[in-house]
Amino acid sequence: MGTVARGSIETLKKLRPWVMINCWHMNEYESAAMWKLYCQGSDGICVQSTYRLLDSALDEDVNIGQVRYISYDAETIPPGNLFWPFLYKRRSFEHERELRAIVCDVTQAMAAIDPPVDGGAWRLVDLDRLIQTIYVAPTASDWIVDLVQSVMQKYGLTKPVNHSGLDAEPLG
User: What is the C-alpha to C-alpha distance for residues 43 and 99, in angstroms, rounded to an integer?
Assistant: First the structure.
């Protein structure tokens, strides 16, 4: 069983270079697994927000959707929406609990205009509206926390910066 209708495959191939995706992890708490998967080395940060804040901080041309995890052997991606193929992943990635913000200039993609060279789509974002909290990796040195706080202050952002406690000794 195919995942996308055959007539749509060529359209998707043409559209793909024009699709820019920003990925978010949906969870009520920090995930040690996500830190390990996506933080190269010991120094990294995580931006905490909500769906509502993300939606309000982005332009109207940004589509936001929750990723659906399927078995490509048994299920198909429904036809009828150009963004749906970008909102489906294999079940083996279900631990990511992913939300995606997607930008695509369908008009230019269909007109066969060359895709953007930088491979991205710039959008102005009100960071003070978007960000709730910044978390610094549990393995990061204390000076990284100070550096992030300094950068936040330099740019007038007043959101909390927390050093993740995921690696702290459990209370006995």
Answer: 24
Tell me how far apart the alpha carbons of residues 90 and 71 are, in angstroms, rounded to a whole number. 6
CA distance 166 to 71: 32
What does the block give as tokens for 17? 């270079």
Give the residues of the chain that fall short of pLDDT 70. 1-9, 11, 106, 108-120, 172
Q: What is the pLDDT of residue 2?
A: 45
SS3 assignment, position 118: coil
Structure tokens at 98: 């992913």
How many percent of the chain have pLDDT more than 90? 55
Residue that the structure tokens 């909290």 belong to: 133
DSSP state of 87: G
How many C-beta atoms lie closer than 10 Å to residue 113's C-beta?
11
Q: Please state, in angstroms and rounded to a whole number, the distance separating the CA atoms of residues 106 and 10.
A: 14
